[in-house]
From TrEMBL:
InterPro entries: MTH1187/YkoF-like (IPR029756), Thiamine_BP (IPR002767), UPF0045_domain (IPR051614). It holds the Pfam family Thiamine_BP. Residues 8-92 form the Thiamine-binding protein domain. GO terms for cellular component: cytosol. Belongs to the UPF0045 family. PANTHER family: UPF0045 PROTEIN ECM15. It comes from the Bacteria. The lineage of its organism: Bacteria, Pseudomonadati, Bacteroidota, Cytophagia, Cytophagales. This is Thiamine-binding protein domain-containing protein. Coiled coil: none annotated.
Amino acid sequence: MKNINLGIQIVPKSKTLDSYQLVDKAIAVIAASGVPYEVTPFETVMEGPETKLMAIAKEAQEAVLNAGAEEVLVYYRMQIRKGKDVSMEEKTLPHKH
């Protein structure tokens, strides 16, 4: 099963709870999953098989709701390559021109 990149941004809505603490619940789920990931100011990017990453994403959004968010907005960005892996490293390492 080939690897893809999945960027996920979870925006919690809560009248009483701090949104950053709620987002930390999602990041904890991703960190515990064992897949390579990188947290950025706008989203968290994961690398792995699509079915696994989608399951982790679902678990992450559920964690935010279970932590007390009234609702969540979830934004996904995915890079999928036909017949070949996609890595985070290929996009972040210096390239020769």
